[in-house]
Amino acid sequence: MKKRNIAILGATGSIGTQALDVVRTFPELLEVSVLTAASNAELLIKQALEFKPRAVVILQDEGYPKVKDALEGSGILVLSGGTALEEVVQYEEIDVVLNAIVGSAGLRPTVKAIQSGKDIALANKETLVVAGQLIMDLVQQHQVAMLPVDSEHSAIFQCLAGEGENPIEKIYLTASGGPFRGKDRAFLTHVTKQQALKHPNWVMGAKITIDSASLMNKGLEVIEAKWLFGLEPDQIDVIVHPQSIVHSMVQFKDGSMKAQMGLPDMKLPIQHALTYPCRQENSFERFNFLNYPSLTFEPADTHTFRNLDLAYRALNDGGDRPCVLNAANEIAVSAFLEEKISFLAMSELIEATMCQLKLVETPTLDDLLAIDQESRIVARDLMNKM
Ligand code: NAD
Ligand code: MG
């Protein structure tokens, strides 16, 4: 494999820091050109001094002087602000842009990166939830690779290797069930943010951890899978698998099923995306069947966890619905994390926002960016009346 230059957007987050672990594992194969962060200046400075990228971006202006001072004389360019993200992904030498930003803020940089011919390693599932059709059209038009980092989608992608045009009957996205698996709505009425932030198998950023507890993460992943693999909603099933060893499965039209398995460790799907199509030897911990004598599966409880149903509804209704769903969810999750609304109120707020806004069937990218903003205003307004 030839050495690749990568840009890591959201370098200070859970995926970003694990991606840098992967880079440390393969210094001869991966080189960092760009690192970006929203606000964590200290960590960004540390990363910059270690990986010596061409440029770093600190989104929030407050952090800029600190990063600028610390990197004075290093030869590393320091930028700030949202448009800088769109600039740096276009650098000539970059081969792959790993988008590990959280939320729909990741959409514009993905678009710019594709338009400048970069392959995308996508952790930022919200990009495909908000604008799946437009993004996949751009991928086609610019002939770039869209490499999934989300573990379920990486699993499906790996199961499809060598299958050419063989028709898929169904895919099964596995879900751990989160910290509240098996609980009922009465229990969920009073759960706290501390309880919701305790994921049984994965350590992740706060937003996706709450999404995992509410099953919205799986809903977003159903939508992500539709676009990545060109499937109809009824070809995508969710199955709860508490051990998080089977990362997802594909069933082909002949009934045969393939699964991809491994320990729950995001470094593996990140490595797969960054070194695709080569499999490079590493010393990450190995999965051993004898440590997991029982792998179990059960249906998802969409009566208790309504967000998964809301996501299917948005997908079936199409147009701008997934964009509205995502924006309302981002507001709901922040409000829950700020202890302004209850766990169950998140679904109510998302549903109410979707009801309030009229369906736009074939939105453009600019429409979606405006609808994202409008949905946030509507959701905040509804929240204040709750
Ligand atoms: P995180 O909160 O730990 O990190 C987010 C990163 O994005 C940080 O570097 C932060 O500085 C940056 N950021 C935040 N807001 C931003 C904004 N408005 N503009 C630009 N940058 C911003 O999140 P994470 O858990 O690493 O998740 C990142 C993405 O990857 C999410 O879309 C998530 O759904 C997806 N993902 C994460 C995991 C996981 O294990 N953490 C697994 C699968 C998919
Ligand atoms: Mg996932």
Topology summary:
Elements: E1 4-9, H1 14-25, E2 30-37, H2 41-51, E3 55-58, H3 64-70, E4 77-80, H4 82-88, E5 96-99, H5 107-115, E6 119-122, H6 126-142, E7 146-148, H7 151-159, E8 168-175, H8 185-188, H9 193-196, H10 206-214, H11 216-229, E9 236-240, E10 246-252, E11 257-261, H12 267-275, E12 298-299, H13 306-317, H14 321-337, H15 345-356, H16 365-385
Parallel strand pairs: 1-2, 1-5, 2-3, 3-4, 5-6, 6-7, 8-9
Antiparallel strand pairs: 8-10, 9-12, 10-11
Bound molecules: nicotinamide-adenine-dinucleotide and magnesium ion (MG).
Magnesium ion is lined by residues 150-152, 221.
Strand content: 15-25%
| CATH superfamily placement of the largest domain | NAD(P)-binding Rossmann-like Domain
Helix content: 40-55%
Largest sheet: 7 strands, parallel
Q: What distance separates the N and C termini?
A: 55 Å
Number of helices: 16
CA-based shape = globular
User: For this structure, what is the CATH class of the largest domain?
Assistant: Alpha Beta
Count of discrete domains:
3
Q: What sequence of helices (H) and strands (E) makes up the elements?
A: EHEHEHEHEHEHEHEHHHHEEEHEHHHH
- Low-pLDDT sequence parts: none
Report the average pLDDT across residues.
97
Rg computed from alpha carbons, rounded to a whole number of angstroms: 20 Å
Structural class determined from secondary elements: alpha/beta
CATH architecture of the largest domain: 3-Layer(aba) Sandwich
* Distinct ligands: nicotinamide-adenine-dinucleotide, magnesium ion
Structure description:
By secondary structure, the chain is of the alpha/beta class. It has three domains: 4-148, NAD(P)-binding Rossmann-like Domain (Rossmann fold, 3-Layer(aba) Sandwich), CATH 3.40.50; 151-264 and 286-306, no CATH class; 318-386, Rna Polymerase Sigma Factor, Chain: A, CATH 1.10.1740.10. It is 45% helix and 16% strand. It has 16 helices and twelve strands. The protein has helices at 14-25, 41-51, 64-70, 82-88, 107-115, 126-142, 151-159, 185-188, 193-196, 206-214, 216-229, 267-275, 306-317, 321-337, 345-356, 365-385; strands at 4-9, 30-37, 55-58, 77-80, 96-99, 119-122, 146-148, 168-175, 236-240, 246-252, 257-261, 298-299. The strands form two sheets. It has a seven-stranded parallel sheet with strand order 4-3-2-1-5-6-7, sandwiched between helices. Helix 6 packs parallel to helix 11 (216-229), helix 14 packs antiparallel against helix 15 (345-356) and helix 15 packs across helix 16. The radius of gyration is 20 Å and the shape is globular. The termini are far apart. The mean pLDDT is 97. Bound molecules: nicotinamide-adenine-dinucleotide and magnesium ion. Residues 10-16, 37-38, 40, 59, 100-102, 105, 123-126, 150, 202, 204-205, 207-208, 266 line the site of nicotinamide-adenine-dinucleotide. Magnesium ion binds next to helix 7.
